[in-house]
Amino acid sequence: MQAVLKDSGLKVTHQRCKLLEFINQVDEQHLTVENIYQGINAQGENIGLTSVYRMMSDFEQAGLVTRRLLESEKTIYELSNKPRHDHLICLTCGKVIDFVDPLIELRLSLAAEHHGMSIHHHSLNMYGQCFECQKAHLNESIT
Ligand SMILES: [Zn+2]
Ligand SMILES: [Zn+2]
């Protein structure tokens, strides 16, 4: 972690190391600042919410994480070294699912080409209800 921080041009501090370590080890790869704050403090660290905000924005500027703005102005972070992908977002439980569709990628690049745009990045989010939440909803209406 220290080498990663050094390479990105950030000063190596204990808190930054812990934070970066935490983001790399968690299974859930789409994290809000609150998720990160709660998770890291549950591991026995003592890092304030504002510090987490500040460090995540440092990480973003250094290119270590990517910030994505979802509907209702919810912000999530994910590691920048993940391959390009799009998102399915559950409006009920907030789950974020990654997917990749080569056909969508192709259509998008054709559309950009058609309009003479050179593309830096794209963001495609679909909003709805995940499978589990649909099931839960069904059970509710039966009982
Ligand atoms: Zn859901
Ligand atoms: Zn993602």
Per the CATH scheme, the topology name of the largest domain is: Arc Repressor Mutant, subunit A
Shape: flat
Oligomer classification = single chain
Q: Describe the biggest sheet?
A: 3 strands, mixed
Integer-rounded radius of gyration: 18 Å
Q: From N to C, what is the helix and strand string?
A: HHHHEEEEHEH
Structural class: alpha+beta
How many distinct helices? 6
The level 1 CATH classification of the largest domain is: Mainly Alpha
Please indicate the count of domains: 2
Q: Which ligands does the model contain, each kind named once? A: zinc ion
Q: Got a strand count?
A: 5
End-to-end distance, in Å? 51 Å
CATH superfamily of the largest domain: Winged helix-like DNA-binding domain superfamily/Winged helix DNA-binding domain
Q: Strand percentage, roughly?
A: 15-25%
Helix content percent band:
40-55%
CATH architectural grouping of the largest domain? Orthogonal Bundle
Overall mean pLDDT stands at: 89
Order of strands, widest sheet: 4-3-5
GO cellular component, one term: cytosol
GO molecular function: DNA-binding transcription factor activity; transcription cis-regulatory region binding; zinc ion binding
Protein name: Ferric uptake regulation protein
Organism: Shewanella algicola
